[in-house]
Structures are given as C-alpha cells and as structure tokens.
Amino acid sequence: MNFYLPPSPVSTLFSNTNPSLVDIFTYQKQAVFQNKYACELLLNIITYNKHALDYQVFGFVIMPDHLHIILKPRKVPLFQIVKKNTANFTRYFQKFTGTYEQIWAEEYYKLPINDYPSLQEIQEYIHNDPVRHKLVNNAKNYTYSSYRYYNEDGENFMLLLDRLQPDEFISPHKHNNA
To answer: Does the N terminus or the C terminus of the chain have fewer Cβ atoms within 10 A?
Structure first.
C-alpha cells in the first residue's frame, strides 16, 4: 500500500490538532539501530522528552536505518520535538561510543493523520515494516515496535505510548479558536 509514499519534507508549521507519522532516517542509511544499545537509548530519550515537551506517541518502529513514529504535539511544535530527540540521541550515543560522525539525515518526513481509520492503517503499515524487510516473520516478534501494546494489550513501552479514541480527532473543516 502506498498511502503515504513518497513523504513530503516537514514544514516548520505547528499543528496542535491531530497526530502525524514522522519518518527519520539515519545519515546515508547507516544501520545504527542494529545495535540494541542504540535502540534502548533512543527509546529512553523519546520517553523522557515526551514528558518534558508534552507530546503524545501513538506508535513507533525502530528499523536498522530509520525510525517511524506517530507523534501528536501539544505545546511544542513538531520540528522542535524531532530536533530535541535527534540531538539528544546524537550527543549521548557519541559520548558512549566515542564516535563523532553524523547520525541523522538532514531531512525527515511527515504525514498528517486526519482520522482514526487512517491512524489504524498507518500503525499497521509501520508495524509490518520489519516483516517487509525480512527482519522477522511476524510483526509481534519485533522487539522495537509498539505492535504488542496496540494489538495484544501488552505492557511494553507503557510510559511511552498513548491510546487515541476515534472521537478525539479534530475535523480538518473545524477551526480551533484556541
């Protein structure tokens, strides 16, 4: 399914309405996240910043060379959330590994999600990315994914992940006067 490909570069406009799928690639598609330590560090940083910057997370998959994450900003613009997470990861990863090479690609991509069926479709799409890339035979077997939290009522990543109800979406035709 090509419902979101090709993604368009993220603008710096702030949207405090609905979630967005954000894809962040590593520099020259290096397989930084084949390393378990790198995955754990990234998850810890995203979880800490979620509470510090007040945003919600509705799904993620960490692939060897990129991150899919569904974010909903509440007080801080999306571009600042991405910048804070990637900068913090870079700083700590470089400190602990002693390497000082570029980790992230210059651009990242976003797709606004306007309704609950689209959210579910995008969650399914990202959760199956490890299967499409032949990393596992079944999405539930991939460690660095929100699949089990949303599909099996798992307790993995409870501090990181949020649940969104269908009635919480804001119609693109309604204007928020806040």
So the answer is: C
